[in-house]
Amino acid sequence: MPIPLMELPRESRRAAKARLVVGMNAGLSRREAAAAANITVREDTAYRLRRRVREAMWLSMTTAKACPTNSRHPCASGSSPIAILLGLLCGVKALAG
What we know:
- This protein is mostly helical and 97 residues long.
- The C terminus is likely disordered.
- The chain has a two-stranded parallel ribbon with strand order 1-2.
- The protein has four helices and two strands; from the N terminus they run E-H-H-E-H-H.
- Helices cover 56% and strands 4% of the residues.
C-alpha cells in the first residue's frame, strides 16, 4: 500500500522524490510514477517538484562548463533534495552533507 510522502523518514523521502521525478521524466504519468515509487503525493506537489528539478538542471547547464568534472556544479555538492535529484538525473553522485 502506498505511503504518504511526508510520513517517510528524511532519507527515504528524498529517494522517493528522486524515483518520482525520474519516473515522470521517463514518460510515466504522475500517478504511475508515484505508484512505482510506492508513495502518494498530490498532483501539484509532484509537478512542482519536477519543475524545480528542471529549473535547477537548466541553471546548472548554463552555469557549469563540464557537469561531471566541475566541482562547483550543483550536482556535485550539497545534500539538498534538489542536489540529490540533479545528481541522479545527471549521473553525478551528490555528496552527503
